[in-house]
Backbone:
């Protein structure tokens, strides 16, 4: 079933909206919104558009008096049922959506987000092709650049394209007859779908690149293999222990979230892949360590010679730290941008100070802002946060999560 063309945003352009906590993607810097709503009528869309335009003109003095623009947008909505953002509005909305991402600790650099305006692209082939271009541009030889590529929005007579993958780069998860998964179990469902669509699969390693699954207006998903030159990967080594190389671990350099909807002033851009750069714990403490992902802590602990017969030996903690040391060491050695959780925690508090000095509130989800290791050793642990969700926003709709599991209805 196709998702609604427009969303009632429960908007907050300078006004407060409370949201229930919801599950996110586990990587990158998403903010999740799980509550579906009926499409707004023309009056509601007019209101949402006007609120956004007033916010844009208030925060960007060079934009001038908003009255003429509001009148033009209202007329466009009355005539067509929707409206088109200017290039300046799109760039501003995308950057502010990052600023408003409650689950992202790395928002200090929200103004640095570069925008690729691909709103003229709606067909699956071109979306896949431009997604590879996005990865090359964002990779930048290892000096990762924050980047978003915005494809065609939903319109009253035509839905925009959708990327089923959670991220542009994901690793396949192959299920055997016993249910054991080789690769990333999180992507087993989408791997099954890609194989059903005709993908021949990769070599069968734990780190085979999963093809993109893209759906356009015809509602039928198709798979597209990513060009190898579009994906930079980092082999993981430990700064002291040479046996880490024997584990054959690697991870990709660009965490490009692909299945969240960019919502600006009542307009939904369902395919708008965006990235910052990795914080090491996203890889070392979550992707590689979670028991429902690669579950590497027992293997690392065994190679470290730790006593795993009792949790009181803290073998998990010690293995976790060494795994995260390997991630940071390897990215640094490869010349690929990565940050650590102590540095990023300090930067987040700087971000709060800067925003509050401008009279703006900062929404944050404590459970996501506090790093998954050494939380109490970071300054973000020892305070509370306002859970207000501001708009514009990157939104994670429930049907996007269904697609990411490879479920097709």
Residues:
């Amino acid at each position: 079933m196709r998702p609604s063309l427009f969303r009632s945003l429960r908007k907050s352009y300078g006004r407060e909206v409370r949201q229930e906590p919801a599950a996110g993607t586990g990587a990158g810097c998403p903010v999740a919104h799980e509550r579906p709503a009926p499409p707004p009528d023309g009056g509601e869309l007019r209101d949402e558009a006007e609120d956004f335009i007033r916010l844009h003109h208030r925060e960007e003095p060079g934009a001038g008096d908003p009255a003429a623009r509001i009148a033009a947008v209202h007329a466009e909505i009355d005539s067509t049922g929707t409206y088109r953002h200017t290039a300046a509005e799109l760039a501003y909305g995308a950057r502010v959506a990052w600023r408003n991402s409650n689950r992202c600790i790395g928002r200090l650099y929200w103004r640095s987000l570069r925008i690729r305006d691909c709103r003229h692209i709606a067909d699956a082939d071109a979306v896949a092709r431009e997604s590879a271009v996005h990865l090359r541009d964002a990779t930048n030889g290892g000096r990762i650049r924050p980047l978003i590529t915005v494809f065609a929005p939903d319109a009253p007579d035509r839905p925009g394209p959708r990327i089923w993958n959670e991220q542009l780069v994901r690793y396949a998860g192959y299920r055997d007859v016993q249910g054991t998964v080789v690769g990333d179990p999180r992507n087993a469902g989408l791997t099954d779908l890609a194989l059903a669509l005709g993908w021949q699969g990769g070599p069968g390693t734990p780190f085979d690149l999963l093809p993109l699954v893209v759906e356009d207006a015809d509602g039928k998903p198709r798979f597209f293999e990513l060009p190898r030159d579009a994906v930079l990967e980092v082999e993981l080594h430990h700064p002291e222990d040479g046996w880490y190389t024997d584990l054959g671990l690697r991870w990709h350099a660009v965490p490009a979230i692909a299945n969240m909807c960019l919502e600006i002033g009542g307009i939904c851009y369902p395919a708008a892949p965006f990235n910052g750069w990795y914080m090491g714990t996203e890889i070392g403490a979550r992707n590689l360590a979670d028991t429902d992902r690669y579950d590497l802590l027992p293997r690392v602990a065994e190679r470290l010679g730790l006593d795993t017969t009792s949790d009181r030996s803290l073998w998990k903690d010690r293995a976790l730290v060494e795994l995260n040391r390997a991630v940071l060491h390897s990215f640094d050695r490869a010349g690929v941008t990565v940050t650590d959780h102590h540095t990023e925690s300090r930067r987040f508090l700087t971000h709060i100070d800067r925003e509050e000095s401008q009279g703006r509130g900062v929404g944050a989800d404590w459970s996501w802002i506090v790093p998954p290791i050494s939380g109490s050793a970071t300054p973000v642990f020892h305070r509370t946060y306002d859970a207000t969700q501001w708009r514009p926003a990157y939104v994670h709709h429930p049907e996007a999560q269904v697609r990411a599991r490879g479920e097709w209805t």
